[in-house]
């Protein structure tokens, strides 16, 4: 497995709860505010979209690019974070 950020490890280490969207790996303040303005205010709402897209990396990355202008690294980090969280908790 590739190395992950501390933010990624922290997110995957515990249940989602009411975590803000900015706790997702790859999502900082700028992307977070863009996601929030589109109604994706919690990490769990982004997880819902991830599941709707059937955990498909390409579709999820395209969605992030369209919704909040995420670049490839940001959307890839977020995808991996959610994928690893699902492996741990679902």
UniProtKB/TrEMBL annotation:
It comes from the Eukaryota. Keywords: Nucleus. It comes from Cryptotermes secundus. GO terms for molecular function: DNA binding. The gene is banf1. Pfam families: SAM_BAF. It is found in: Nucleus. One of its GO terms (biological process) is chromosome organization. GO terms for cellular component: condensed chromosome; nucleus. This is Barrier-to-autointegration factor-like protein.
